[in-house]
Amino acid sequence: MAQCKPFKAIAFDLDGTLIDSVPDLAAATNATLAELNLTGCSEEQVRSWVGNGAHVLIERALIFALGEAVEAQRLEAAMPIFMKHYEAHLQRHSKLYDGVINVLEQLHSMGYQLAVVTNKPYRFTIPLLDAFGIGHLFTQVLGGDSLDKMKPDPLPLNHLLQQWQLDKTELLMVGDSKNDILAAKAAGISSIGLTYGYNYGEDIGLSGPTAVCDTFSEVLAHINDSQKVMEQ
């Protein structure tokens, strides 16, 4: 039987999947709160707030600090402050998860098209990927503000399917959050849920990914195993 790949392309989330970025997000969030003369928060709190984009992160931080709902005008006024501080803290304490470079390089050498699909603003995504020496491995990078909608909406994944002219069976989504899994389901593609990232304290398996991996290296093993099944 002729050999064929189960997937032709793989989309990866960024925060909590490739990079542990919470230490820098927490530092920027606390610097924002301090500039606004508000009570700071813990790194663990920030871990439970990330995943839905910068606006939601700062909204949650402000709600915590104020003890009440935040008016839209106040939130919008806080966003430039956060952006300023996060740009200053972008890669001070963040780090790649174990196995990320090795797996990405192997997948790239095997001919898979790789993409990043994140809810992080695009202006921070490219510098962060380049800072860790992995930006060149991706042929598509979509930030949370690159399109009209972001995860859990399927638009970013549908965009990849269209841009790369892929069948839904040929694209795989890898992420640590239910937003990644919900987006994949809505797009009709397979997904891998990672247990080590940021998922609001919930078991990623409850979101129903196609497969669950405890480490990033297991992603490669899962893809290789899937290929062996296709070749039988």
Summarize the structure in words.
With 232 residues, the chain is of the alpha/beta class. It has 2 domains: 9-21 and 94-231, Rossmann fold, CATH 3.40.50.1000; 22-89, Orthogonal Bundle (DNA polymerase, domain 1), CATH 1.10.150.240. It has helices spanning 22-35, 43-49, 54-66, 72-89, 100-109, 122-131, 155-163, 178-187, 217-231, and strands at residues 9-12, 19-20, 95-96, 113-117, 140-142, 171-175, 190-194, 211-213. Strands 5-4-1-6-7-8 form a 6-stranded parallel β-sheet, sandwiched between helices. Helix 8 (178-187) links the parallel strand 6 (171-175) and strand 7. Helix 1 crosses helix 4 and helix 3 (54-66) crosses helix 4 (72-89). The longest helix is centred in the middle third of the chain and has 18 residues, at 72-89. The termini are close together. The model has no long low-confidence stretch (mean pLDDT 94).
Q: What order do the helices and strands come in, and which of them pair?
A:
Blueprint lengths: L8 E4 L6 E2 L1 H14 L7 H7 L4 H13 L5 H18 L5 E2 L3 H10 L3 E5 L4 H10 L8 E3 L12 H9 L7 E5 L2 H10 L2 E5 L16 E3 L3 H15 L1
Parallel strand pairs: 1-4, 1-6, 4-5, 6-7, 7-8
Antiparallel strand pairs: 2-3
Helix pairs in contact: 1-4, 3-4
Pathway: Organic acid metabolism; glycolate biosynthesis; glycolate from 2-phosphoglycolate: step 1/1
Protein name: Phosphoglycolate phosphatase
Cofactor: Mg(2+)
* Total count of strands: 8
CATH class of the largest domain: Alpha Beta
Taking pLDDT < 50 over at least 5 consecutive residues as the criterion, the unreliable ranges are none
Rg estimate, integer Å: 18 Å
Strands in their spatial order, largest beta sheet: 5-4-1-6-7-8
Structural class: alpha/beta
Q: Which second-level CATH architecture of the largest domain applies?
A: 3-Layer(aba) Sandwich
Q: Termini, distance in Å?
A: 7 Å
Counting H and I runs of at least 4 residues, what is the number of helices? 9
Binding site for Mg(2+): 13, 15, 176
Cofactor: Mg(2+)
InterPro entries: HAD-like_hydrolase_sf, HAD-like_sf, HAD-SF_hydro_IA, HAD_2, HAD_sf, PGP-like_dom2, PGPase_prok
Function: Specifically catalyzes the dephosphorylation of 2-phosphoglycolate. Is involved in the dissimilation of the intracellular 2-phosphoglycolate formed during the DNA repair of 3'-phosphoglycolate ends, a major class of DNA lesions induced by oxidative stress.
